[in-house]
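Same chain as my last thread, 209 residues:
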Amino acid sequence: MKNIDRREFIGKSVLGAAGISFGVNAFADTLTAENKPQEPNRSAQKQVEYGEAVRKKYPEQCIVAIAKDKNGKANPITMGWTMITSDSPPMMAVSMSAGSYTVEAVRHSKCFTITYPSAEQADAVLFFGTHSGRNTDKFKEFPTAIEPAKQIDSVLLTDAVANFECQLESEFTTGDHFIFVGRLVASHVNVMPKKRLFILGPGRKLGPV
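reply #2:
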């Protein structure tokens, strides 16, 4: 092995370190204003009214909740406010307007179906969300393929992506809405591949994502 003079070694080390430093500086100079880290006191956010900010939620999930009223009529309602609340046991929740007819139906039947509609069901979903079950038999006025639920007194949407049978567990009041929490007692998926329907924007814009 070649013997290297100590002063020669130190000199090469210094030059090597300097070269690395020069390389870092050259790389830093290539960063643009867009990809440089933001200054700590700089914000990309501005405060706006709730109504403006909440429009950024789209695309939003779309579901159809179904419950039978006191006359045994299955009433479907279209909504976007739903979530999974527990894995063990499986539980899901829906948020309904206080004036919704389905609120009465859920309280009467103590159960409901949550359905993920398919893209091909857009017209039916729009109808379900723009008519009231108080004066309309929605499934009669807009014929839709349905079948009996297996564990609760409700129905499933045959052409949906998935259906969840929920036994009512609890109810909460949140402002002008009621939240119904259901314990899942049966789940179903379509045997055919189907695209799920979403709410794409305000003005009743529906479509797949």
